């Protein structure tokens, strides 16, 4: 991690997960413009249309829920249905290039905690999304009672399916959500994940 980025993260006292070329960091108000610009990229709208919401409503509740999630983790409690939304930050520049999140996916069978992610069109194909997903998976297995994770990807979203597979998820089935066909994956335990990555 470069000194400037490290100082910025430490001085603002934001939660981070260190990965190889990127780190995951909880959202801050300063991320709003970069975050919103990413949600407008056609490549992200194609696969995640629900993420394109007015920027005024974007971060407020998400920042509060992140804080609740992290407080529950630090107290050794059960995260229940809380969500954790983290920005993907490029170490060399401090640029906000995407996001990696976990939450409950109601359309999936219980236990239905999933991971999800998106990355800027300018930073695809460099392994950053896989690093982010692996970092979040490790964090969840090491710090919460999570022992099953889910992931879905539209069948035609080849890059997203590759990321999920590189993270050790098993393809379980196909699932239709709101008239779209997805591949449905599960990661059954930390041991399974440790053996595969």
Number of helices: 7
First-residue to last-residue Cα separation: 23 Å
Which term fits the overall shape?
globular
CATH architecture: 3-Layer(aba) Sandwich
Question: pLDDT under 50 segments (min length 5)?
Answer: 1-11
Percent helix, as a range, is 25-40%
Instruction: Look at the structure and give the mean pLDDT.
Output: 85
CATH top level is Alpha Beta
As laid out across the biggest beta sheet, the strand order is 1-2-3-4-5
Per DSSP, what share of the residues sits in E-state strands of 2 or more residues?
25-35%
Briefly note the structural class of the backbone: alpha+beta
Order of helices and strands: HEEHHHEEEHEHEEH
Could you give the topology of this structure?
Elements lengths: L2 H9 L4 E3 L3 E5 L5 H8 L2 H6 L7 H20 L9 E7 L5 E9 L8 E7 L8 H16 L5 E6 L3 H9 L3 E8 L2 E8 L2 H7 L1
Antiparallel strand pairs: 1-2, 2-3, 3-4, 4-5, 6-8, 7-8
What would your notes on this structure say?
- With 197 residues, the chain is of the alpha+beta class.
- It has a single domain, classed as Gcn5-related N-acetyltransferase (GNAT) (Aminopeptidase, 3-Layer(aba) Sandwich), CATH 3.40.630.
- It has helices at residues 3-11, 32-39, 42-47, 55-74, 128-143, 158-166, 190-196; strands spanning 16-18, 22-26, 84-90, 96-104, 113-119, 149-154, 170-177, 180-187.
- The strands form two sheets. The chain has a five-stranded antiparallel β-sheet with strand order 1-2-3-4-5, sandwiched between helices.
């Amino acid at each position: 991690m470069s000194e400037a980025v490290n100082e910025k993260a430490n001085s603002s006292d934001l939660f981070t997960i260190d990965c190889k070329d990127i780190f995951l960091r909880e959202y801050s108000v300063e991320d709003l413009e970069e975050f919103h610009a990413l949600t407008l990229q056609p490549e992200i709208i194609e696969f995640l249309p629900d993420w394109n919401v007015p920027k005024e409503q974007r971060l407020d509740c998400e920042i509060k829920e992140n804080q609740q999630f992290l407080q529950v983790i630090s107290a050794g409690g059960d995260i229940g249905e809380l969500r954790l939304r983290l920005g993907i930050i490029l170490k060399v520049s401090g640029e906000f290039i995407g996001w990696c999140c976990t939450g409950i996916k109601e359309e999936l069978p219980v236990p239905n905690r999933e991971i999800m992610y998106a990355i800027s069109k300018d930073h695809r194909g460099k392994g950053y999304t896989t690093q982010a997903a692996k970092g979040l998976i490790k964090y969840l297995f090491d710090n919460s009672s999570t022992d099953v994770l889910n992931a879905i990807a539209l069948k035609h979203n080849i890059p997203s399916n590759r990321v999920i597979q590189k993270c050790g998820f098993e393809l379980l089935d196909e699932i239709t959500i709101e008239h779209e066909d997805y591949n449905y994956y599960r990661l059954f335990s930390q041991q399974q994940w440790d053996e595969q990555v």
